[in-house]
Amino acid sequence: MDFVPRLAIRHTSTKLAGQVYIPSINWMLFVGVVVIVVGFGSSAALASAYGIAVTGTFIVTTVLFATVARTLWETSRWIVYAGLAFMLPIDVAFFAANLTKIEHGGWLPLAIGGVIFTLLRTWQKGREVITAKRQAKEGPMREFIESIHWGRLELQRIPGTAIFLNATRETVPLALRTMAELNHVLQEQVVVVTVQILPVAVYNQPDRVVVDDLGYSDDGISHVTGKFGYTEKLNVPALLAVADGRRGVNLTAPPEECAYFVSRINIARSLDPTMVSWRKRLYIHLSGFASNPVDYFNLPAEKTVTVGARIDL
What is the separation, in whole angstroms, between the first and last Cα of the chain? Predict the structure, then answer.
């Protein structure tokens, strides 16, 4: 949902996509619980914090339920408003009755909620800015292919197969653009891979692997889209083994022996009025917690090259 960096997630249900176990978050909760219990010392001392937390959850749950009913279930606007008019005043009354407990420990859930909201919103906003700037830097894939096909971009094609990962087929991976425009070198076979995770446990439909020659079948450049269910382990080499031989994908070596190129974004603070300075620092710090794409996509570490690119936030 783009509220946090990419984390290691273990799905514990084949029926509910939202039933997950996130080890790093679980450890954070463990540490937080220990600190709170030791800090307050007794269940009686925690009563004030508990009252604010529970009644605040009433309000949030009511608002979220109304949002889901309106946007996902497409319930009539007047029914949703009538439900809010009935339930929300009751929830607010309970919450208001506990406001006198803020100075006696009720400040804790409010502080925790404020910190978490700030983290989530900062990452979401920063992600929007970085994604827009990255896509502008990458440029359209169609124009890039045309420049190679018609000789406007001079390249020396060398033996081998290069695999580039990218979030979409519409733009050029930064690592690919860097090699082509900076080094003027490109392997004879180039495959851009996009991985899609779908809201099903296992995806076994005929379009699990989609291959596109990007308009030309004779330039050695193609795109592969792999579709996975949320419980499946992402394995790009296995995906390429299935795609090999289809519509322009002709690997010169087994997938485990091909060269993989991953784009790495180096984020730097700038004077652009995209976010306030402290939120920029926070976003840059949070980006350091993102999981390693080599492990995430099960790439062969000894065959993977990381190509850096700077983007100003």
Answer: 20
Q: What is the 3-state secondary structure (H, E, C) of 215-278?
A: CCCCCCEEEEEEEEECCCCCCHHHHHHHHCCCCCCCCCCCHHHCEEEEEEEEEECCCCCCCCHH
- Nearest alpha carbon to residue 94 among 69, 137, 124, 61: 61
- Given a contact cutoff of 8 angstroms between Cβ atoms, the answer to whether 119 and 300 are in contact is no
Token pair belonging to 193? 């891979």
- H/E element, 20: strand 20-21
**pLDDT tens digits along 271-297:** 888 889 999 999 999 888 888 888 888
Q: Please choose, from the candidates 112, 119, 111, the residue with its C-alpha nearest in 3D space to the C-alpha of residue 283.
A: 119
Rounded to the nearest integer, the mean pLDDT of the chain is: 88
Cα–Cα distance measured from residue 246 to residue 224, given in angstroms and rounded to the nearest whole number: 10
Q: What would you report as the CA-atom Rg of the chain, rounded to the nearest whole angstrom? A: 25
Helix axes 107-138, 47-71, angle to 10 degrees: 40
Task: Mention every residue, 6+ apart, whose C-beta is less than 8 A from residue 31.
Answer: none
Distance CA(175)–CA(177), nearest Å, equals 6
Closest to 287 measured CA to CA, from 167, 118, 119, 123: 123
Q: Element (H or E) spanning 109, and its range?
A: helix 107-138
Find the helix or strand (DSSP H, E) in which 149 lies. Answer: helix 141-149
User: For residue 171, how many C-alpha atoms fall within 13 Å in the half-sphere facing its CB?
Assistant: 17
| Domain map (residue ranges) of the chain | 10-136, 141-312
pLDDT tens digits, one per residue of 180-198: 888 888 888 999 999 998 8
Residues above pLDDT 90, as percent of the chain: 28
- Torsion sign over Cα 293, 296, 297, 298: positive
Helix (H) or strand (E) holding 162: strand 156-165
